Amino acid sequence: MSKNINIEYIFNPNLNKKFLDKHNPKKIFCIKKVKNQKKWTKEEDVQLISLAEKYNEKHWKEISNKFIKKNSLQCFSRYKRIRPGIIKGSWKKEEDLRILDLVDKHGKSWSKISKIIGTRNGKQIRDRYINVLDPEIKKGKFNEDEDKKLIYLFRQNGPKWATIAKFYPNRTADMVKNRFHSSIKKKLNLEGVPESKLFCKVKIFFFNFL
Questions:
Q1: What span, in angstroms and rounded, lies between the C-alpha atoms of 180 and 174?
Q2: What topology is assigned to 144-209 in CATH?
Q3: How far is CA 198 from CA 165, 178, 208, in A?
Q4: Which contacts of 100-104 are long-range, i.e. CB under 8 A and separated by 24 or more positions?
Q5: DSSP assignment letter at 40
Q6: What does the pLDDT look like over 107-127, one tens digit per residue?
Q7: What is the CATH number of domain 93-133?
Q8: I need a surface site. Which of 14, 150, 163, 179 has the fewest CB within 10 A?
Q9: Whole-angstrom distance, CA of residue 48 vs CA of residue 77
Q10: pLDDT by residue (tens digit) across 46-78?
Q11: Residue ranges, CATH 1.10.10.60, the chain
Q12: pTM of the entire predicted model
């Protein structure tokens, strides 16, 4: 669900009376866009952690009512990232081995694995596995043909790294992006050019490079 989407309850007159007798007619979902969605502040994070502890990490609708323009999904997702006990920074070998073991047992169920580990959230675990631990990842250097293809694909797609990575078996989007910024930009004398302007610049240099 988009960050700028909020859930509002409305009455739907088209529902039959039997259904309405059993359900609160106000609790019928519709989607409403939220304008001027702001980032979470430190004060809101502190309040969110306090409320999550109070409600035993449940009742996210009630928790979201304590905030302005925050829905239950946003509160839940934010809490998963900032909840106490989450470690940030470098990974230990023991953590990597445990992730590999848990992926073998539970598959790529990042939320479930996060609950078992307890000190890393699902996004951290997913990124670590996809970019580093996945045994199918090709970790060697990019060869000349891969570099040429990268320039061609960037010229066609712009900085859509996930799309470009689909043309590289066993390479991740992060690997493709890092290769472009660490090497290709230097080859094309585009160091210091912001990513938003690279698309046009690469078109200019494309044929000269090939």
A1: 10
A2: Arc Repressor Mutant, subunit A (1.10.10)
A3: 18, 14, 16
A4: 100/129, 100/133, 103/129
A5: P
A6: 999 989 998 998 998 889 999
A7: 1.10.10.60
A8: 14
A9: 11
A10: 999 999 999 888 899 999 999 988 999 999 989
A11: 93-133
A12: 0.56
